[in-house]
Write a structure and sequence with these properties.
Layout (H helix, E strand, L loop, with lengths): L1 H36 L10 H8 L12 H16 L10 H18 L2 H19 L2 H4 L3 H5 L10 H22 L4 E4 L2 E4 L6 E3 L7 H18 L3 H9 L1 H21 L3 H32 L1 H20 L3
Antiparallel strand pairs: 1-2, 2-3
């Protein structure tokens, strides 16, 4: 009698442990249907996923958006590897976030504005996980969920592109004149008025907005996985903008320097195509590492001492 009751209790506990996963599977199925299959909009791009894929293009400076779902999947997998060991305690207040995200989806259908559905998407994911698994599990998926905001096409990004063009043009002109270069600026075009005249147009692609978006995503990921206090994460992420400006300035100014020393063709062709990898990202990523180092001068020393003490203890231990 006792053996049968214990086996029944085990089966009941196993069934209860499966319930959250069944609920999560149902929520994921409903989510995939309404975002990827259901024709919610009467226009040619009828689903949210289809609209996103076509909006992620080079004309909108949003080509990076096509990589966001893959980055989300990788970070969600890393989060799941930690979350699977957490205690499951469903939080009822997650239903409020879930309903808020659903209401934004409904509003997007009524207003024919898929961006609203994308704004509500992290709330659907986080709210559903909270309601099914609780806070201890959900905390590992908050960052990957809101990282999806990088995939939302921003209408005013073209205005930001024009502003960045003006800023980098003025910076390069002022730096060039300080270095003794005879330059003239007209709009976004920098020209040489010396013995060998040349001119470079700081086009939209040279504004740095694409590099800024790439660096912002890298900074967000780096800050999330290397910093513990929230203010350090926010500060490191905020440094992406000035670092992007510095990196883009270095990229364009070195092009001007090469042209000034007589390598105009090389500067405008081969070097221009590779300057992003050779100049921008080394400067920007080094800046991120430097800020990280300034924010955390102690832990690495402590970690190094702990490693050295552990190594010395092992070396001194009898064999």
């Amino acid at each position: 009698m006792s053996e049968s009751s214990s086996s029944e209790t085990t089966r009941t506990a196993a069934g209860r442990s499966r319930l959250p996963w069944i609920g999560a599977g149902l929520l994921a199925t409903v989510f995939l249907y309404f975002f990827c299959i259901h024709s919610a909009y009467p226009t040619g791009l009828k689903t949210v996923a289809n609209w996103c894929w076509h909006a992620w293009n080079s004309k909108n400076d949003m080509l990076h958006g096509r990589a966001i779902p893959f980055a989300f999947a990788i970070m969600a997998y890393l989060g799941w590897k930690k979350a699977r060991y957490e205690i499951i305690r469903p939080a009822g207040w997650g239903l409020a976030l879930l309903l808020f995200g659903i209401s934004l989806y409904v509003l997007s259908v009524r207003a024919l504005q898929p961006r609203l559905a994308l704004i509500g998407l992290p709330f659907v994911i986080v709210g559903g996980l909270l309601y099914v698994f609780g806070t201890r599990v959900t905390r590992h998926f908050v960052f990957p969920s809101f990282f999806l905001y990088f995939a939302i096409p921003v209408p005013g990004i073209q205005q930001a592109t024009a502003l960045l063009q003006v800023v980098v043009t003025k910076l390069c002109y002022q730096a060039g004149t300080l270095c003794g270069m005879s330059l003239m600026v007209q709009g976004n075009t920098i020209s040489s008025v010396g013995e060998t005249p040349w001119n470079f147009d700081i086009a939209e692609g040279c504004s740095g907005v694409r590099s800024l978006m790439a660096l912002a995503m890298i900074a967000a990921i780096y800050a999330n996985y290397t910093q513990k206090p929230l203010w350090k994460k926010a500060f490191l992420f905020a440094c992406a903008l000035p670092l992007a400006l510095i990196g883009n300035f270095g990229r364009i100014f070195t092009i001007l320097l090469l042209a000034h020393f007589g390598f105009e063709d090389f500067a405008s062709q081969t070097y221009h195509d590779w300057a992003g990898m050779l100049i921008f990202f080394p400067i920007a990523l080094s800046g991120l590492f430097l800020v990280d180092r300034l924010l955390n001068p102690g832990p690495r020393k402590t970690l190094r001492r702990a490693t050295q003490s552990r190594a010395s203890a092992l070396s001194n231990s009898p064999t």
